[in-house]
Amino acid sequence: MSTPSTALIVGARGGIGGAVARSLLRHGWRVRGLARRVPGDAPGMEWIAGDAMDRAAVVRAAQGVQAVIHAVNPPGYRNWDTLVLPMLDNSMAAALAAGARLVLPGNVYNFGPDAFADPGEDAPQHPLTRKGAIRVETERRLRDAVPAGLRSLVVRAGDYFGPGAASNWFAQGLVGGRRPVRALTDPGRPGVGHQWAYLPDVAETIARLLAREDDLEPAARFHLAGHWDADGTEMIAAIRRALGRPSLPVRRFPWWLVSVARPFVPFCREMHEMRYLWRTPLRLTNGKLVRFLGEEPHTPLDVAVAAALGDVPEQGRCP
């Protein structure tokens, strides 16, 4: 019997990191999680206390692994300019030292209007936002490290939602941080489509791609189709169904208030910067992924929304 592969997940306590951990465990992987605070109860996981900003700690944690999942982001969207790239560099160093593939869950922030509406994996990346520019730089570093021996996998998807995901448009934008839910807010322009990605589907895709390691390109990139809300009404309708409240009020998202709050609230600043994605449709298509895997893992929208709502914490919101 062959020895199971081992993965290190940097950021395993976050939404996407936790989802990937659960998926890899189901696929028979051994999984290590690197976190500053090790949880007391995590069945099946090996936890290592460490900071993603500590390169030596990340490299030690990655010894003997076959994959490093870089699923860490600064909490609350703070200090992206100073933390995102150093943390990536540390995961790259760890993957190179271990001879492992580095996996980066990606998104659509890389793309500007010149790539709309359905950019392929190799579409030009000319973002208009600070956050988008950082995402472009992360991917550039992965590609530039191929001659040094780094193998990478970037899986881009729409707006994440699902169990364990708190700082996102679903939890803090549409549903908000108050319980019970008294109303939904719609940030989109009427009739404009929007793309969503259910975290367990993203994680399952990553697990299936890693199972095909020998067939992956050195710097592999794939797009997920996820859930495409063609006119901006389907996600709201699914939330109403899941809550059993077909007449739940829907209000326009107060973009003007976000603009006022953005100098003081980091999440509001990030929301405002990504406003263009709610005004212009950008839809990733999964042709390359389907040709490679045969299908894209896909949970029905109503099932995904019900699971996501069951795990949305009560919290502050913007605005």
From TrEMBL:
This is NAD(P)H-binding protein. PANTHER family: NAD(P)-BINDING DOMAIN-CONTAINING PROTEIN-RELATED (PTHR48079:SF6), PROTEIN YEEZ (PTHR48079). Residues 7-216 form the NAD-dependent epimerase/dehydratase domain. Signal peptide: none annotated. GO terms for cellular component: cytoplasm. It comes from the Bacteria. GO terms for molecular function: aldehyde dehydrogenase (NAD+) activity.
